[in-house]
Recover the amino acids of this structure.
């Protein structure tokens, strides 16, 4: 399967405190084991076989690095969803979307996302089960959505398989605003699904299918085989967890 990839690496309004604490000009330039976050992500995308890799960025140093890594520099929008919409028009589908702070990203996770998205789906969404995350990083703090089949955390890995997936990007901005408020996200599923969620009967896979159809697309859950797929860099403790994990892995 030939696909392109997008790395979201825009600048937060007011800058990113974590980048400042690390002495980096931008979050994507924070280094782990001598390699920037952006380099680690682009390298994994190349390893997965992505035909084209676009980096949505607006910081001069990030733009420079993206070009050095052989990626295409794409303009940013007002937020991740608008940046994805811009890149969608340039790169088309099928398209894998991820973020520059996906420090542990592995090529295998990307190929799993692509291969495990059903052929009749417009979108594949990768999430990791809490049990799988805790198996690798016990005690790590993540944002979880609780469903009948357990607690799940997003992996910042999406597969836009068909042109119809453009409809989901249009609704992404509202979902972005509610990502820390699971009830608001689930409310978009409709009253019947909301009641099922409240009663603990709705599984995550059912929720994704229902939400997708309300948006006019066929969306499917892809359960991450490795729980580390849900570990990104949002705060100092994330960096500490990741560096500690890599040190133990090498030791």
């Amino acid at each position: 399967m030939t696909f392109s990839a997008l790395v979201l690496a825009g600048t937060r309004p007011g800058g990113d405190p974590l980048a400042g604490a690390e002495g980096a000009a931008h979050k994507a330039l924070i280094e782990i084991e001598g390699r920037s976050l952006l380099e680690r992500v682009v390298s994994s995308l190349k390893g997965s076989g992505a035909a084209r890799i676009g980096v949505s960025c607006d910081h001069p140093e990030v733009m420079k690095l993206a070009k050095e890594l052989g990626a295409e520099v794409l303009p940013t929008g007002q937020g991740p969803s608008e940046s994805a919409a811009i890149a969608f028009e340039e790169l088309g589908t099928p398209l894998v979307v991820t973020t520059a702070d996906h420090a542990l990203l592995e090529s295998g996770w990307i190929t799993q996302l692509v291969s495990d998205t059903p052929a009749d789906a417009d979108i594949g969404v990768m999430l990791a089960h809490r049990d799988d995350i805790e198996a690798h990083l016990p005690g790590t703090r993540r944002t979880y959505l609780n469903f009948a089949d357990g607690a799940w955390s997003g992996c910042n890995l999406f597969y836009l398989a068909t042109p119809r997936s453009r409809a989901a990007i249009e609704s992404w901005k509202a979902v972005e605003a509610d990502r820390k408020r699971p009830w608001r996200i689930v409310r978009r599923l409709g009253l019947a699904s909301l009641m099922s969620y409240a009663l603990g009967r709705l599984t995550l896979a059912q929720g994704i299918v229902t939400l997708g159809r309300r948006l006019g697309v066929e969306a499917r859950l892809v359960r991450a085989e490795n729980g580390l797929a849900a570990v990104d860099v949002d705060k100092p403790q994330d960096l500490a967890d990741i560096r500690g994990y890599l040190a133990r892995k090498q030791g």
User: Anything to note?
Assistant: Strands lie at 4-8, 31-32, 35-36, 52-56, 72-74, 95-99, 123-129, 145-147, 150-160, 219-223.
